[in-house]
Amino acid sequence: MSTPSVGLKPDSAWHNNFAALNAANGPFADLRRQAWSEFSAKGFPDPREEEWRWTNVSPIAGLDFTDADQSAVAAVSAESVLALAPSLAEGPRLTLVDGLFHAAASNLADLPEGLKLHPLAAVLAEDPTSVSELLGQQAEGRLNRFVSMNTALMRDGVVIEVADNAQISTPVTILHAFGLTGPQRSCQPRVLIRLGAHAELTLIEQHVSMAKQQSLNNEVLEITLGENAKLNHVILGEAADDSFMIIAAWAALARDAHYRSLNYQFGGKLTRLDLNISEDDTGAHSELIGLLMPRGHQHIDTHTRIHHNSAHTTSNEHYRAIADEHGRAVFKGRILVAQDAQKIEAYQSSANLILSDNAEIDAKPELEIYADDVKCSHGATIGQLDKEALYYLQSRGISKSQARELLIFGFAEEVINHLDHPELRAHLTRRVAGNLASTLLEDFLKP
Amino acid sequence: MLEIKNLHVKIGDQEILKGINLSVKAGEVHAIMGPNGSGKSTLCQVLGGRDDYEVTAGEILFKGKNLIELETEERAGEGLLLGFQHPVEIPGVKNIYLLKEAYNALRKYRGEAEADTFTFMKLLRQKMQQMQMDDSFLHRGVNAGFSGGEKKRNEILQMLLLEPKLMLLDETDSGLDIDALKIVANGVNALRSPDRAIVLVTHYQRLLDYIEPDFVHVLYKGRIIKSGDKSLAKRLEKEGYQEILREAVA
Question: pTM above 0.80?
Answer without folding.
Answer: yes
